# Entry
Amino acid sequence: MSTIDWIIDVRHLSKSFKNQPAVVDLSLQIRRGEIFGFLGPNGTGKTTTIRMLCGLLTPDSGEGHCMGFDILHETEKIKSQIGYMTQQFSLYKELSIVENLNFRAQLYGLKDRKKLVTNIMEKLGLTQRQHQLARNLSAGWKQRLALASAVLHQPLLLLLDEPTAGVDPNARRDFWELIHTMASEGTSILLSTHNMDEIERCQRIAYMGKGKIITHGTIPELISQVNLITWEVTGPNLPLLTKQLEVLPTVDLVTTFYSTLHVSGSDAEKLENSLKPFMAVASYHWKKTKPSFEDIFIWLTKKELNRQ
# Structure
């Protein structure tokens, strides 16, 4: 695949702050029009990585391109093609929707500002509320306004930092419908999140730990890459059963899913042998199953935290 097929193509990026490594020898390629998610505990280098990938932060070493521009020497060209939506609402609360967007269009120095603002309000369903003050908007509508502001200049690359934190499920669904539409139209999306619902909407994912990519790929690929054997159990008094299972040396993880437990370990034979006394209890029903991505995420996070 040639360079032109990648929105991001970087090699051996490293960055330290006060002699503390934040990102170590990171190489990654992200396709054009892809929704790519970064996952991992806090402090593992996700934000630093995204900022270096997009030319917003200069790496100590390494090289690469973002949207065809050199991340070391053409950062201004990169910045002009990026939209950035932060977790915290950062627009002017005392301005209306249309006033916020007009002001942002002026900052970008956009031509045909009125037409662009009108078009983005129509696209994101903001037209009927355009004169409403931002401070009076619900979390979901503030989110739409923030997204409109981030993509007003029609960026090739959109950065999302925990984009649906604090919004209700309906607003989250509507937001992701908009994001998928943008991706289908050619906008590439980089997402940093801890939300399983969000990360499962990504086409590919990178799990980071201690400044390195521990594993990356599609969700099925990540599940297959991690050697985790899982049993599903239903029955009475699952909280008590959880406490009994968690102390077993062969059990790496016990995850609760409503009225079901997922019991996971990395050695199939040893795990099954240690569970046999519990399987013999008639009131419990056991069956072997595939680990969910949430199982994988919790297991990777637990493993990474134990390394720190």
